[in-house]
Amino acid sequence: MIDISMDMEQYDCPFIDTTADHDVAFAAAHWEFNPVAEELECRMVVEGADRGALDNGLHALQDHQQMHDIDLLAKRENVAHLKTVMGQTDAMATIRRNDGYVTGPFYIENGSELWHVGFDDAGAADGTLSELERDNEFEVVARDDTALPTMNDVVQNAGAAMALIDGCRDLSDVERETLETAATEGYFQSPRDTTLGDLADQFGVSKPAVSKNLRRGQQKMVDRVVEALSELDE
To answer: Which neighbouring-strand residues pair with 84?
Structure first.
């Protein structure tokens, strides 16, 4: 399997056009393609910079000629959950025509879209990328040739991977920033390249405060690592 991640700028995608004109971002929670109607049905989460940006983005998306239907499932503050039906884009048609398939969620922001697509052989992948270059702007940000044993390992251990991802999501913004800075500055190395006092000065808080944020963040991640290890054992 050839797994390709690309930063795509389609000229006929309603989501890309909307994020280019409004301060909103879309993430696909679920998608399904109807080959007969040549339509893509998605459950999307959309987040605006504020309520006004969200409302403006939703109105623009509704009016786009490629958008066939929108159902607002839920809305709170500056975030909404949508069910959308859109026509097939040129890039989507090219990938499907070459036996490509979606391997991960879409994420759209600032006029471009992060795609994850797969192919069964390198020839099909290379041919598709050549075709896409004719009418689309994109950049391949990652390409992995996944062998069958590795693919099987990924599928079997998806639960462990999600446990680690959930651990990252459990972190508060302060805990995450504190952990990232501590790791980058060498706090966890032996000998340490930075001290608790240095970190406290950098964040403008007391040493007990930065220590508490570190301990809370570490505890959350350790709990998830233990959970992931249990998933691997099972």
So the answer is: 42, 70
157-233 maps to which CATH number? 1.10.10.10
Residue 29 has pLDDT above 80, yes or no: no
Question: DSSP letter string over the chain?
Answer: -EEEEEEEE-SS-HHHHHHHHSSEEEEEEEEEEETTTTEEEEEEEEEESSHHHHHHHHHHHHH-TTEEEEEEEEEETTEEEEEEEEEPPHHHHHHHHTT-EE-S--EEETTEEEEEEEESSHHHHHHHHHHHHHH-EEEEEEEEE--HHHHHHHHHTHHHHHHHHHHHHHS-HHHHHHHHHHHHHTTTSSS-SS-HHHHHHHHTS-HHHHHHHHHHHHHHHHHHHHHHHHHHH-
Query: pLDDT (tens digit, 9 = 90+) per residue, 47-95?
Result: 999 999 999 999 999 999 999 999 999 999 999 999 999 988 888 889 8
Cis peptide bond prior to 14, omega within 30° of 0: no
Domain residue ranges of the chain, discontinuous segments joined by +: 2-145, 157-233
User: Phi first, then psi: what are they for 136, rounded to 5°?
Assistant: -140, 155
For residue 29, what are its two tokens? 């929670």
